[in-house]
Amino acid sequence: MSVTLFQAMSAPPRAEGVDFCRAHPLDLRLDGAVLVTGATGFVGGGILFSLLSRAEELGLTKIVLMVRRRAGKTVEERLQKLKENSMFDGLRETFDQLVVGLEGDVSQQNFGWKEHEKSWPHQERLKAVLHCAGDVRFQQPMQQAAVSLVSATLQVQQLASQWRSKRFLFVSTAFVHAVPPSSTEALEEKLVELRDFDAMELYRDAMSHGSWAKTAMRELGFPNTYTFAKAIAEHLVIRACEADELDVRIVRPSIVGPSWAFPYTGWAGDKPSTIVGAGALLARRGVRVFRDGFDHPCPVVPVDMVADLTVRALCGASNAEPGFELGFMSKLLRASSNATVFYYANSILNVFPIHFLDAVRICLERIFSMFGQKLSKEFSTVVRVLVSCRSLPMDYHPFSSPSTPWRFKSCLRLAEEWDLFEYVLICGRAAYAFALNPLQGPERGYAKEFSEIRICSKETAMTDALLAFVHPEASIFYSIAAFVVRLGLSWISLTVTVDGTSLSSITSLDAPLVLCPQHRSVLDFVIIGLMCSQLQPLLPLHLPHVAADAEFSNLPVLGWALSGLGAFFVRRGGGAVQPDPALRAKVGRVFQSGRPLEVFLEGLRSRGRRQLRLRTGLLKALRDISQRTVALVPLAMSYELLPEDESLYKEMCGLPRDPLRTLDLLFWVVRGLKDELPPVGEAFMRSSSCQAVLRECERWPLLLQAATLTPLRRRLPRPWAKWLVEGPDDSGPQEKQQSLDELATALCAHLTAAEQAAQNCIDALRKNGIVEVTEEHLVQETKPLLSPLVPSAVSRHLGAFFVLNSIADTKFIAQYVDGRPAAQITSQRYKALGQQPMYRLWELFQRKLSVPLTVRDLMPERPMPDLPKPAEGLEEILAAVLPQEGRVRMDADARLRAGTGHGLADIWRLRTRLLERFPDAVVRPETEEEVQALLNAAMSYNHGVGFGIIPVGMEPDSMELSTLGGWIATRASGMKRARYGNIEDMVLEVRLITPGGAIWQRHGDPKAQAETAIGRASTNIGLPAMVLGSEGCLGVITSAVVRVRPLPQVVEYQSVVFPDWDRGASWMREVARMPAGLRPASCRLMDQNQLQLAQALKQGSEEISAWQSLRNSLKDAFLHWKGISLEDAAAVTLVFEGHRAEVNLQKKEISKLVSMAGGLWGGASAGSAGYTLTFAIAYLRDFGLDYRILSESLETMVPWSTIHEVWPAVKMAVQREHRQLRLPGKPFMSCRMTQLYDEGGVLYMYLAICTTGLEAQSALAAFESLEHAARCAILNAGGCLSHHHGVGKLRASLLPETQSLVLTQALRNFKMALDPSNVLAARNGTWCTTALEGSDSQSLASDAHESED
């Protein structure tokens, strides 16, 4: 690789696409119609673009494309797909005006037409026929090559003559010459000599048995049937055209490469071909060696130059001979320059591994077929593609590395702005794009890919060793050091990338280099050193001498190693009083060595990534001792997550920095060997991106680093801006960016609050008589606040404290990964879900719902409507009760959040902006007195009319979104009820504030309640029993006494697989018969749909590889051998908790039941994944809403006597209702048994439907109709209305079927006594208006707009 490649990376912008064509007119006319074959191919696509972009200049009246049916697509569909290709951006209107299709297959006799002689189907006169269709495979059988390359060409020529075309143009190849010319000559533009062989006789023989044609091919020296058939076709076409008096042109391109200027720079078609295919195969390790001669050039021509010269020939431009050739010289270096070496390397590295892999594929397919299974389709496809490519290196050999170079006489002239090295990069970038995604070529704007040079990434130890020890100019000591460094960086998964375009300026420097990077981490000098060492063969960069802190010199072993690598140690701050002569002497010795210097101008690492004032003592010493100009090279480094972020965070908090110790390095090495180090991310010289769950010590540096950027910093208060960036002010006009303004406003609010928090600490100290506040004292007082910025407030009388959200937003998204749609979770909040793309999850949705889903077909975001103003006078009344700022909120965000639950109806209305229910205000009382005052104010508002108070008592989708008060109000239950009980088993006491006053039992004083608890008392009806399930209608729960248990010493997961749901349910019945102390903390049975969903989610934590695919296939074969199919199987996830002996005993007893029932152990990872599925369900529901998929859960308690009847009844009822509503696809339903009782089990069911095509309100009504049908089926089959979700409003219409009217009226009278004005107007459960109206299904729809629970 040449240094000039770096300069080519930053090549100046130039015209491309239509602009290039207009800037380079052809000055020719055609004035008529043209017929083109092969326009959907690579060369044909370039020609079509040239014709369209020059249509007005050429006088084109119509462009007819002969296109065949393919893959079940009609001609019209293929033309539409062709038009939608990004290459035709800006030309689609011209495309619609000129381009029409003509169905025909050039490889079929008479093009596959039924009419023997078909007339020209258009009024516009046909002026020219261009034939560029053909099979470009080199090793076709002789007869097939004759049909596709000779017969097809002659047939198109005959059609041109029949339709009275003026001209016929045939795209051949420059390699119709069998061998290159002698070293001093160039190939002429004339027909190839066939010696004594007649072209027609050769063609006839090739169409029959082909033996004589093969003999002729060998004698004439042709390397393959492709070039041989093209040579024959040229002879026969010229004969036929001369006989028909048809003007003929032949275009002979050499190896066709990516475009130089149009359709856009680097366009390479829709699939890799020629030189791009070779590069893509090398990049994907499909083959490992290609040969391209070092001593002669490889003839490559850009496709757009082929297209332009073809259009010239089509319009009548001609050279002296009837044909002309295209080709120019590009040196594309390959590994094997010696022919013998290449032959053996190709056999060992390319052919043998592919043959071996194909043999493995065949064996596995036969083994799998014995068990009635199929081998992974993806694995089989990859192997077959590799088999088809195994001969490509040898096929390319005659063209890329002949004994003498290919030289052609040609009329081709390169563009004025032509740059050989830029085109080499274009070819490489195109190959890289296809290596990343073989189904999609490089798009517009991709040309910056190679500007980022990968220096280091996570590789195997063997790869790291090869990269370190094969360096051409490194000593053994440097190689060992490089290997150790690469190994260490791989432990923390650090990827190092360099902006190659910015390095081009270094190539032209003729002066000693002084590297001046930012100082963010102890890894800085490691990364810079590795970069210089890796790029040394290309750039004048040697391993630099690093000015390291003297503290490193005191470290045993490490200090010696750094010194051996060229580091010299300086004392920071030593020149503040007077120049340090020792420093001058060290700099002088280093400067004389000729190696670059590495200087950290910021001195100490900038705490929290602030930008500190530069320390220039070392540069001054260099200036004093140098006798020539030196070049300062600034390096902007950025890596968001650092290994020592925690230590930096401690420094920010004012805590003393831990000294450097070799022992810490040893501990770090041990953790690396155990693979316990967290991934760091990416180190990049200019920018980086990282998706990770951040700790407090990682969020702070990231936030402050963002605040140092000028556009944001200018919007901050001046003292904070000066603190973030020390040095001169860079005041200037502010950019008008709304997003930055909003971010700065929010940040300023945090900073202001931080200042006040720190000032309050200082004032408190001074009130206690402290006159001078020291940093240590302030840190001591503010430790409970966790304020990392407070120590800086001492010197500036300014402190800061603010709290960021503990976790980033978590959700599922869909995207294309390697050309396939996949779901992926956006954070690492759930380790079991991992970060890998979940292809199977997306496929599962489509398969189970029986609807096509498109990744980009997201439900559009709609603007939030304006909310009505709050009631008049309400704000003043609430402010009188809660005068503190921020305790009363009437903004739209607060009102919507408080008025929206997490049930499907509320979330869907919020997403579709069908807002019907929201409060006027949101209050946050902090004491019982404030709650009581709010209730009194509510009763007296508006002369006694009052206003309603709705306590927030949502139905929780998961543990993360629920509260203790919500659990009590809904009479909730948990996943580990078997060990810890339901909420009624935990609550001992509760306090309730009602409009009539406080209700309590056993303890009147809340303080006494907090200090003592009575486990049981026989005094009237227990208050907890009255409050449990009240759903916010009786009062506000302000406190409760609950039982707590110690954290378990042991938590273990496990799973069991059963052939079907019924056998799994029978096994669960046996577990329920066990004594309570022997049952697992959680025992949950999943049906086949839940199991498949869990397996699809588990894919996110698995590395996608051929080995993993084979492993999964073998696992499926084993299950099939055991009589278990994943299409019918059910699985149980188990969680064991407690002491070690307790857990061991539980596992032992459970194992006995598993053996008796014939189940199979599924492993701990499967158990953990199944358990995590519970938390992911809420996110999956929201993910489905993006694609108009509505889903919700239903739960019920069912006696053991009817446990097998409920779920089939529910499925039948939902399917029947779904058919009656004529909804798209089919409903996706799944079920799991979540909790076990002596009397029965709990069924937790999920229902999902696709509502594409329905309006938002209709979609919700349809789902609620299905949900109502499911609940009716549950009740009719013997289940209860709700086990732990409560009644709310959606179930209230069915409540009369589960309790007597007398009880309902008694409960209503009870509420009337506590809340006569109905201030607590949640209207849930018994107190919902539909609870007394019977079970009419229409009542459910009338209240469908209300929130659930």
TrEMBL record:
Its EC number is 2.5.1.26. Pathway: Glycerolipid metabolism; ether lipid biosynthesis. It comes from the Eukaryota. Keywords: FAD, Flavoprotein. Residues 858-1047 form the FAD-binding PCMH-type domain. InterPro entries: Alkyl-DHAP_Synthase (IPR025650), FAD-bd_oxidored_4_C (IPR004113), FAD-bd_PCMH (IPR016166), FAD-bd_PCMH-like_sf (IPR036318), FAD-bd_PCMH_sub1 (IPR016167), FAD-linked_Oxase-like_C (IPR016164), FAR_NAD-bd (IPR013120), NAD(P)-bd_dom_sf (IPR036291). It is an enzyme of class 2 (transferase). Belongs to the FAD-binding oxidoreductase/transferase type 4 family. This is alkylglycerone-phosphate synthase. It comes from Durusdinium trenchii.
